[in-house]
Amino acid sequence: MEKTQLSVWEDFFQFDHALVISDAVPQPIIVKDKHSRFRFLNNAACALLGRARSDLIGRTDHDILPAAEADRIRAMDQQVLETGEEFSFEEDITAADGTVRSLVTQKRRVELASGGSKEMLLVVTILDMTACRRAEAELRASEEHYRSLIELHPQVPWTARPSGEVLEVGPRWNEITGFEATDALGTERAKAVHADDVENVERLWSSSLSTGDPLDVEFRLATAEGSHRWFRSRAAARKAEDDTIVGWYGLLEDVDDRRRALESVKESEARFRAIADDAPVMIWVTDESGAATYHSRLWLETTGQTAEQSRGLGWADAVHPEKRQEVEAGFVAAMRDRKPVRVEYRLRRADGTWAWVIDLGQPRFASDGRFLGYVGIALDITDRRKAEVERLLAQKQMHHMARHDALTGLPNWQFLREEFECISDNIVPDTKIAILCLDLEGFKAVNEAYGRASGDLLLRRVADRLRNCVKQSDILCRLGSDDFVVLRTGIKSNDEARNLAQQLIDVVEVPYELAGSHVDLGVIVGLAAAPKGDQSIDELIQAADIALDQAKPDGRGTYVEYEPGMDTHLQAKQQIKVLLRQALANNALEVHYQPLVNLHTGRLTTCEALVRWPQPGRGQISPAEFIPVAEEADLIGPLGEWVLRQACTEAAKWPLDISVAVNLSPVQFDRRLAATVCDILKETGLNASRLELEITESVLLDECDRNFQILKEIRQLGVKVAIDDFGTGYSSLSYLRSFRFDKIKIDRSFVSDLPAGKESLAILRAVAGIGRTLGITTTVEGVEAPDQLEIIKAEGFDEAQGYLFSRPLPAAQLLKLMQSWGDKSSP
């Protein structure tokens, strides 16, 4: 150390004012002699050690620290004093106040000349890095948090340079579109953006880049499935202090459902307007605030107002001044209580004359009870006001609207019920009443292919044909979307009802011309006939519905007449529901296991769990009988969870190289499914890699996007996913492209006719090739004969299952089978 430094230290120890200066230093400073005795400590050091200076001077670390810690510090001190090399290290300590602090300690040797001799001292300085380390940890956590938000965000966050080039895009971009991140809103965006939307996207994006204004644009993006969906991209610029743009932050949001819903609403509104504009009464609609949002064409023609002038409270300008305040008060009072409104007033016509009108309005409510506003009609009662018949006319109009279908003009269920009560007492003795329920086949496909407007037109044409087919005394009703009912009285035999059913079928199934194309519709009829007074209208409808259900399996052009006992299966189904609930509550079900064999090694690899229901007095109830009932009765959830728990519990006892496969019903797919699987694996201790969940293609038909997401969550647990009954669905290959299955199980129907079935063999060969190409395990079910086994082995399948190896066995017998299987090298 230089002389000037030594002088400073001498002054430091010899003078009180030097002590004051050192105490002002915020970092701890400690000076020790060659025996590691404390010679000096400033206030910061005393605070760190939690001792007074007078208690520390002359003492060593052994006086204040545990022996091991003091020995460690003593060794470091001696090393520095002997070598003269500086020593620095960082460690976490618990301070005197109990807090944990990160400290960087530096130790160096100094030599002091005093009276012709030299003394070696150890100077220790301590730097508190706690705040710095905490800031670093918080920064890392912030970065990890940001990355988690990006990866887990249900939408697609993205960032871009000031020039517009994409820097980063959320992982869902690739999942949604199948394109790379660079194909987002960057230079290659035309690959993913619909060709019709590219120009608008580029124009708005260029405008935002040049002005710095936020971006907000909706466009269609190609999806990995080959279709297009609507997305909304919003972005805002991040600017520096000088207002220059340093980057863009954006979010890509899937708005396809909203767009389609909006289009559907617009289409529905258009249909309503088309009907309302042709109505012989003035129709109006308000929102929840009472402001008018629509007036029909007759109102506008009558008053001379434009659609814009009549909006809000503008319609009241056409009310006679003497009545305006009273009319407005009537609407306000009705709005307050959300009750029907009825007012009479004079309305100024376009030619300046006045018409008396009666205005009737009804509150509108959404399915969740939310108030939507009012819909009403205004009737011109000028010519009849003196006779006071206007109210009757309005009531009849409202009565008619409440009892007739607005689309076809046919009576509805309410009309049928009321009319049946009126005519039932006037039916000719010794005759019968016939009810025929009609269900259109193929209407949904036409509606989806041509749009709802064309679908509505088709329903009106069906209604017209039925009107021309039935008698004037018959009652023809529309009860639902494509459900019609015919009531005929006075029939003398059931043959007349059957002939009528055939006539209705013949009339409806003649092709229709729609949108320049010929469209085919089918119809199925269920009919019920009963003598006068034997049954109510509800009972007749129920009987006809039961007959309709019996007719549906035979397809279009079929009619079935109700016979006593047809509802026996309904009663049996209800009994199964009750017994199944009891069986679940009493743990009366069983799980059997059927092995799957590896065709390459001959070893048992997996056992499929199959639920069985032994019923005293009835033997085994087939799963084909009770599984559909469980799905219908909301029992499949607890049943499926019970089977999964039993199977995992049992599989945990098996050798580690044998897995268990469990079937999932489409009804089980909800947001909690992955969490339930995770909980059961933890509860039973079964490794996730030893669990296979088998699904059928029907899982992917409805709620496809949601169910794909659930499958991905299950895969993230480490669980394998297999597609069962492969080849019996509609779009197997597209599903294989959309989701990476671990296993394909070929339906037994392709094996049963081997070796003679050439078509089945060709399908098996193709599926085996697909499995090899995609690296997916292929399994064949229903193998019962050695020659079948030889064929599937020759085609290169990986696994086989069937009675040739073993029937489904209870758990105890399965364990014995596993033991006897031993080290077999071939099945």
Which blocks of ≥5 consecutive residues have pLDDT under 50? 1-16
Within the CATH hierarchy, at the fold level, what is the topology of the largest domain? Answer: TIM Barrel
At the fourth level of CATH, the homologous superfamily of the largest domain is EAL domain
Which structural class best describes the helix and strand composition?
Answer: alpha+beta
How many runs of DSSP E, i.e. beta strands? 31
Dominant shape: extended
Compute the number of structural domains.
5
Total of DSSP H or I helical runs spanning 4+ residues = 27
* Percent helix range: 40-55%
Provide a descriptive summary of the structure in words.
- With 827 residues, the protein is of the alpha+beta class.
- The chain has 5 domains: 3-133, PAS domain (Beta-Lactamase), CATH 3.30.450; 153-254, PAS domain (Beta-Lactamase, 2-Layer Sandwich); 267-403, Beta-Lactamase; 413-566, Reverse transcriptase/Diguanylate cyclase domain (Alpha-Beta Plaits); 574-821, Alpha-Beta Barrel (TIM Barrel), CATH 3.20.20.450.
- Helices cover 41% and strands 26% of the residues.
- It has 27 helices and 31 strands.
- It has an 8-stranded mixed β-barrel with strand order 23-24-26-27-28-29-30-31, surrounded by 4 helices.
- A hairpin with a 3-residue loop joins strand 24 and strand 25 (619-621).
- The radius of gyration is 42 Å and the shape is extended.
- Pfam families: EAL, GGDEF, PAS_3, PAS_4.
- This is Diguanylate cyclase/phosphodiesterase (GGDEF & EAL domains) with PAS/PAC sensor(S).
- Keywords: Plasmid.
